[in-house]
Amino acid sequence: xxxxxxxxxxxxxxxxxxxxxxxxxxxxxxxxxxxxxxxxxxxxxxxxxxxxxxxxxxxxxxxxxxxxxxxxxxxxxxxxxxxxxxxxxxxxxxxxxxxxxxxxxxxxxxxxxxxxxxxxxxxxxxxxxxxxxxxxxxxxxxxxxxxxxxxxxxxxxxxxxxxxxxxxxxxxxxxxxxxxxxxxxxxxxxxxxxxxxxxxxxxxxxxxxxxxxxxxxxxxxxxxxxxxxxxxxxxxxxxxxxxxxxxxxxxxxxxxxxxxxxxxxxxxxxxxxxxxxxxxxxxxxxxxxxxxxxxxxxxxxxxxxxxxxxxxxxxxxxxxxxxxxxxxxxxxxxxxxxxxxxxxxxxxxxxxxxxxxxxxxxxxxxx
Amino acid sequence: xxxxxxxxxxxxxxxxxxxxxxxxxxxxxxxxxxxxxxxxxxxxxxxxxxxxxxxxxxxxxxxxxxxxxxxxxxxxxxxxxxxxxxxxxxxxxxxxxxxxxxxxxxxxxxxxxxxxxxxxxxxxxxxxxxxxxxxxxxxxxxxxxxxxxxxxxxxxxxxxxxxxxxxxxxxxxxxxxxxxxxxxxxxxxxxxxxxxxxxxxxxxxxxxxxxxxxxxxxxxxxxxxxxxxxxxxxxxxxxxxxxxxxxxxx
Lengths: 367, 250
Hints:
The complex is a heterodimer. By secondary structure, chain A is an all-alpha fold.
């Protein structure tokens, strides 16, 4: 046999890159069809997708539940903001460098958390990661000279590059940058999840002892997965800082961290497309609810503001879990399977004869 | 109807020991799970490890695999001590099946087998070869949980065998199988041993052990109480006493 046999779920790298490039071009083209506010929402979806894609790979593929991904986004955001302010130059080189520093900072924090995560599981890991988010405002206050406490860090306004200023509005430019960065993150996670490392993660999730006996270093796999997921979240935080031109602990609350988990559960655990659907939901749903409540009397609208969204998210989560336990993406896949299995002809269905029972291992005679 | 199996007895030149355990003791707090256990499994030999529940059989496997830390004794494979790290066992040619299948429930049959060979240059080809050898190719892309229990047992065996081990540890491989499947399993074990692989198996199915093993070691309360050929062990009054709980006059 010539060459190595491809592993299940592993696509050729070139094909993955071409598919990613194709979707990126479609998304970039789409920004021309959107108004500035929709482009702003697209940039938010892209930033959240970095975090939710990393989270869904972590939770879905390794079974490690992190409730602290908002904190990892914040680390990336602060890294991005502090680097941007420290650099003597601006433009795309400064953006790329600041994003790399933000990703590196979240990688370091993620590595430390991952080392602990390799020894913890279930509610213990969830508790640890939740504590990190809870501690975030205190960290920002303690090092207020650098992190500016609750006010956060602002970055200088960077408009559209001169070459594009005539054809691209600010929000569209931000959306385009967010789309390109997110495409790179999602492609990286897709490659990571496919092939050998992806199988190692799934094996560790399903049975850690059996995985170790099969030669899979379970601890190292968990640490690497947590670190990769943290980098994705950190890049998302950097993109969010680029879009909002500021980073502050108020943007990365426990509620937001839980919302990221809700997004990946609603979208479908382990599915990057599901993470994208979930990110769209967490951006659009509060906006839709805001539109609805704005038509109510001012007193009622004020009382419902913020609270109604939480209630609706809770109801949505319960409904999705009851109707589609594998999330929106799982429901789409199941529907596609049902459609493809449906008989197309009017003739009678072929009778299914039970296959002869096979013994455990065929003997030489049975072969 | 009981399965018809022909005992295989080894003969000829003595073969070199693949697994050597000397003076192995494992303690859990005040409880002695294994006490000064010594045994050897030679190249191409099938050794059965039997004993009542709680005798220490699985603990011995866990000690060999580095899942529990021995308090005393040495474990060597081909004369070299085994690393106390389960993930390095497959690199040393050691494979093990687990009592409770230990399959990766979210994966397909093929992926389960692949998982046992991920460190290889071309795991896909190796896995396909193993799937063909155990007649699993037809189920390769089905979720492993969809298969009947005997087929799942076969997948667990395939995952252990795909690494082409020189020492195979089987933890209750016949558990839950019917007579026909047990006979086929015995055939597979004998064929695996014929390639030079040393096989150590823990099993409660005494008839199966007696028919497939070259030697049998009996554990009770963490100590070796009998060792020898199946015929020798079957006639040992200490074994009857351990299994039946009756005192036999010596």
